[in-house]
User: Which sequence fits this backbone?
């Protein structure tokens, strides 16, 4: 599988980059997306906070500055 295909289907990286990729999906007509957020953070409390912040930052209507949350 070409790396470009993997990059298109499995966005990863900082929140601003993920938000931009999700916006490209929406701009091209995708109206339903299923997200599976992952982190390598071993601490459960920190992991929970990272995932929660990512969900908030990527949510429809979130302000762009929210996407800079870690």
Assistant:
């Amino acid at each position: 599988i070409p790396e470009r295909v993997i990059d298109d289907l499995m966005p990863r990286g900082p929140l601003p980059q993920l938000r931009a990729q999700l916006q490209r999906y929406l701009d091209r007509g995708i109206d339903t997306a299923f997200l599976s957020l992952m982190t390598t953070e071993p601490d459960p409390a920190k992991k929970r906070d990272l995932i929660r912040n990512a969900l908030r930052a990527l949510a429809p209507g979130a302000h762009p500055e929210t996407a800079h949350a870690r």
User: Anything to note?
Assistant: The longest helix spans residues 44-58. The helical segments are 3-9, 15-27, 44-58. The CA atoms of residues 5 and 69 lie 27 Å apart.
